């Protein structure tokens, strides 16, 4: 069996056992930076499998936020690892990338998140893996749930897709309802507001 197929089979088996975690695969890129994913490595990289017993310590470790990509995606570093986090349960306005104009309040969401956690130590609570091999997680800074803070500020909505079974969305939905009532942040647009999910469908990459 080809190595890439072996990795895929191993991960699928792990996911069938646990929704929250599975084995982690680590590799070093051409710049000497170590990355990890609980899906697989890029096709041209040789990955080392890290047992779940080791990856589970991630929830007990502190990481530094080294880059904020947008209102719901960041890069963290620590424990000899560097990886990307997709903030679970929330969906912030799309920035549009380098070739497209983003949604209203997308830059405000990014800047607010930068003020909250850029360069700071954070804790993570993992919920498995989402698209593009990104770890799904709640981010905590000084015991503040940063995911929830984005929703309360009116700079992210509750994610409208499938949520992890182990995550209770009640607090997120209450925070969104409160932000809508106050017309905070992106909710000030009223009827002109578009969900990030709708915007992505209308503006495919």
TrEMBL record:
What residue stretch is flagged as signal peptide?
1-22
Cross-referenced Gene3D superfamilies: 2.40.50.90
**Ranges for region Disordered:** 172-205
Which UniProt key words apply to this protein?
A: Endonuclease, Hydrolase, Nuclease, Signal
Tell me the ranges covered by the TNase-like domain, including all copies.
Answer: 59-189
GO-annotated molecular function: endonuclease activity; hydrolase activity; nucleic acid binding
Q: What InterPro entries does the record tag this protein with?
A: DUF4124 (IPR025392), SNase_OB-fold_sf (IPR035437), Staphylococal_nuclease_OB-fold (IPR016071), Thermonucl_AS (IPR002071)
Instruction: Return the protein name.
Output: Micrococcal nuclease-like nuclease
Keyword Signal attached: yes
Q: Which SMART domains match?
A: SNc
Superkingdom in the source lineage:
Bacteria
Coiled-coil residues: none
């Amino acid at each position: 069996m080809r190595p890439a197929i072996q990795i895929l089979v191993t991960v699928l088996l792990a996911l069938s056992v646990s929704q929250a975690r599975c084995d982690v695969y680590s590799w070093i890129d051409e710049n000497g930076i170590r990355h990890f994913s609980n899906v697989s490595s890029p096709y041209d990289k040789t990955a080392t499998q890290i047992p779940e017993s080791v990856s589970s310590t991630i929830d007990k470790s502190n990481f530094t936020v080294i880059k904020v990509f947008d209102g719901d995606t960041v890069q963290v570093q620590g424990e000899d690892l560097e990886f990307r986090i997709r903030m679970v349960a929330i969906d912030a306005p799309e920035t549009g990338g380098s070739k497209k104009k983003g949604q209203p309040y997308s830059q405000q969401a990014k800047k607010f998140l930068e003020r909250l956690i850029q360069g700071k130590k954070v804790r993570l609570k993992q919920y498995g893996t989402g698209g593009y091999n990104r770890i799904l997680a709640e981010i905590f800074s000084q015991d503040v749930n940063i995911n929830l803070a984005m929703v309360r500020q009116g700079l992210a909505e509750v994610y409208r897709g499938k949520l992890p079974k182990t995550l209770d969305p009640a607090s997120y939905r209450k925070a969104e309802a409160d932000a809508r009532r106050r017309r905070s942040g992106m909710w000030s647009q009223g009827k002109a507001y578009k969900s990030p999910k709708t915007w992505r469908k209308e503006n495919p990459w």
